[in-house]
Structures are given as C-alpha cells and as structure tokens.
Amino acid sequence: MSAVVGARMLDGVRQWLAESGTEPTPARVAEALRAQGRVLGDTEVLGAAAQLRSELVGAGPLEPLLADASVTDVLVSAPDRVWVDRGGGLELTGITFRDAAALRRLAQRLAAVAGRRLDDARPWVDARLPDGTRLHAVLPPVAVGSTCLSLRVVRPRAFTLAELTEAGTVPPGGDRILRALLDARLSFLISGGTGTGKTTLLSALLGLVGPKERIVLAEDSAELKPEHPHVVRLESRPANQEGAGLVGLDDLVRQALRMRPDRLVVGEVRGAEVVHLLAALNTGHEGGCGTVHANAAGDVPARLEALGTTAGLDRAALHSQLAAALSVVIHLVRDRTGRRRMAEVHVLERAASGLVVTVPALRWGERAFTKQQGWTRLNTLLTAGDRGDGR
Q1: Can you give the pLDDT at residue 3?
Q2: Fold for domain 60-152?
Q3: Nearest alpha-carbon partner for 344 in 306, 390, 294, 384
C-alpha cells in the first residue's frame, strides 16, 4: 500500500468506521478519507480498505500464514517477531504488525470472535475460533513487553495413517501394528510433549475404526477430526463472567458413557476425568483411547496417578483401575530437526509392588520398529484380539 496512507490516517479511518458502524468497503473507506480532508486514488483507497478489512474481520497480517496448509502453529511474541511451525521446527517470518497496539487489537478481536473477554481485568484467554483454530493470548503487563498470541491450526481433514508413515512419523511397518491394535480393541493412550503430533495421530487412528462403530469424543477444545461416518463430539465450556455454566471434561465423560459409545475418546486426559475414564474402561468399554502429556512413556502411570490423586482417588485404587483398564502407551517425540515421530510403544504390567509400570515393546527404527522386552506381551494382546478372545 502506498506510504501516503499512513498510520495516523488509518487510525482516523478506523475511528470513523467504528463511530458510523459501517463495514470497511472501498466506498466507505473513500468516504472516511474524504471526511479527513484527503482525496486519494483508487489504488490507495483499495489498499487502505484491504488492510482495514484484514484487521477488522480477518486475522490481520497473519491471514496468509493461517491459509498455508503446511503451517500448524503461528506464534507472535512481539510486533516484529512472528514465528511459524511447518513441522520442522520454528521459523521466523517476515510478517510484522504496525505497532504493539495493532497486535493487541487483533488479540482482543479474535477473543471476542470466540466469545471471550480479553482486557486488563482478564489479561489472558484460551479459546477456540469458529473455524477450529486454537487461540491463546496474553496481554501486558502479564506478558512482558508485548502481547503474546498463539494460534494452533486445526486442519479440516485428518491425515491418514499412510500419510503419517510417508512423512516419517510412523516407521515402515508401524501402520500394521497400529491397525492390529485397533482391531484388537485394546485401550491405549498416546503420550508426548506439546506439539509432538498426539492429536494428529489419534485422528488418523480413529479414522480406521470400523464404520459401524459409534465414536464419542470428549474434548476441552474440539480438535480431533477423524474421517469416520459416526462421530459424536462433546466440548467443554468455561464458566461465564458470573462464574456459572461450567461444563468440565469430567462432566462430558459421564455424559458420553450414557450415549452408547463403541469407542470412548478423551482428547486430552489432564484432570478429574481420568477417574471416569478408567472406570469406563473397566466396565466393558473396550477400545477407549485418548492423549496425555508426558515426557516419556514410562512416566504415564505417574502422570495418571497425580491426576487421580487430585480427583480424590488414592494411589492403590488408581493403580488397580489402571492395571485392568489400559493396555498400551504410544509415545511421540520431536527430534532435534523438529520432525515428529513415534518413538516407542509400551505395554502396561503390574509390578510386584502392586503398582503399574510400562514395559517397552517397540522402539523407533529408521527401517522398522525394533522389538523390546515387552514385545511378547504386546503380540499376545494383539493376537488375542484377532481370535476374538477379548483382552
């Protein structure tokens, strides 16, 4: 856009449009410019209109990044520090905001679109935009120096298992193990850190579930998009400004159990819902699954123990439930190059102490999984399911 349409002039146009309550069409922008005593050519007017529409109804300068099919995350830490992740680690882009105020306005407008408040009284927000994009924003002074904005893109189509194998997330031959796991109706969790691809892998696996099975999803933020003909989606809801109306993930799991699920899926196990999930998996709901944050597959029992304790379930009871409820943990990592990959598959066993531990069954290999000490146990579970013997 021509430099003749400067920051001060755009602010004037923005204020005029706000006061008149009109859309930033080229005609209205031209009218607003004339109201300021400026007459510009068609090119300048169209440029000003495009910028204002981007600020007022789109994602501003971030629009081209969100439209890029390879981008999974857009992270803004300052007006001139906009990063993206395309699956190979963070990359600094050339995208910039005019100033800190423009970045703050965008964060507040996106929060409003999601039906949330973002201001000095409530300086952070975690929400989902209408298109499924996950929004997180923090305003100064909580965010030191600048508004911080994080957008996680949820693609309209889930990756297939074949695509994940081709991309190197799943090693050659790993798809056969995962298909057998689903066919055997084993209950499993996918573990890993933030951004390791847990939701992506889970969506792909759910797409392989038999078309006659009913999948019921319970999520804090609706991110799972399996390619499956029978999916029921439940999403939690925060309390309103008066503190009423909260619907938690534990509430959703309880409701899901009354909806005749063939597969009960918890998008991310991170609270009291762990108690209801384990109880469900112990009462005939085979093939349930979900994701959990953990640094390693071996840390999953301790992670679930901590969650269960906060929900009022003592250690012994939690491990008793866990031993009967869960069969497999699939662990994902991001290597030093930023590539996501399926690092390990563990089986769960009860130790002499009575506590549940995980035992490595398969480890990542460039050409194929390498079998570990738990492989015999895993193979037994997979083949028992093939014979229809159950677990």
Answers
A1: 41
A2: Beta-Lactamase (3.30.450)
A3: 294
